[in-house]
């Protein structure tokens, strides 16, 4: 508790999350998309492909791409700038192998995530690459674990490093990666909606297929802002 209070008044001039403007929602940025076709076609299980093989190859690809995207701004994500792994009103804590909750900075948290993912996706017993080798019973739960952690990294990128991403002109890549990832995890129920809801406003905009150019634009719906009570509440995970 004491530590939370401290982080709210850190002297870098940052306002608490509720008052901060969500730059990533500005139309200027959300209209930029590398692809404008229906992402769902990319994620549905192709006929003749084994479900586990499909989950394994996609999860490995998302791990590599999200790791790469984070690396573009990693020099700005330090123990000073990001004293905790935050996204919107949420602070993510790392739980070690014995289940002990640990405070860590965002770069430490991302390092834990990436090391764990690397270890899992390269483990032949968990992500078998040899023909005929069986997936373990724990495969699906491990894929869910990886996807949940990768979502935390994406959320942190938007919440803490969108400005730097824009400065590098990489927001189009980030948006495409994010939309593809969300459509994928939704298709196979890999991340609890309670985790992803903090980014639902962005997901709504990015994951809805763009209307065909000739048709009249659909009436715009106001962006659904979380209720004031949820804005002021710091969630711990
Ligand atoms: Zn950071």
- Count the helices. How many? 10
Ligand inventory: zinc ion
Helix and strand composition category: mainly alpha
Kindly provide the name of the CATH class of the domain at 53-211. Answer: Mainly Alpha
Overall shape: globular
As residue ranges, the low-confidence spans are 1-16, 225-231
Secondary-structure element order, N to C: HHHHEEEEHHHHHHE
Instruction: State the assembly state of the protein chains.
Output: single chain
CATH architecture of the domain at 53-211: Up-down Bundle
Q: What's the CATH H-level superfamily name of the domain at 53-211? A: MOB kinase activator
CATH topology name of the domain at 53-211, in short, is: Butyryl-CoA Dehydrogenase, subunit A, domain 3
Strand content of the residues, in percent? 5-15%
Binding site for Zn(2+): 77, 82, 156, 161
Pfam families: Mob1_phocein (PF03637)
Keywords: Metal-binding, Zinc
Biased composition (Low complexity): 221-230
Characterize the structure shown.
- Residues 1-21, 209-237 are annotated as: Disordered.
- Strand 1 and strand 2 form a beta hairpin.
- The protein has a domain at 53-211: MOB kinase activator (Butyryl-CoA Dehydrogenase, subunit A, domain 3), CATH 1.20.140.30.
- It starts with a helix and ends with a strand.
- It has ten helices and five strands.
- Strands 1-2-5 form a three-stranded mixed β-sheet. A two-stranded antiparallel ribbon has the order 3-4.
- Helix 4 (51-73) packs antiparallel against helix 7 (171-187) and helix 6 packs antiparallel against helix 7.
- The longest helix has 29 residues, at 139-167.
- With 237 residues, it is mainly alpha-helical.
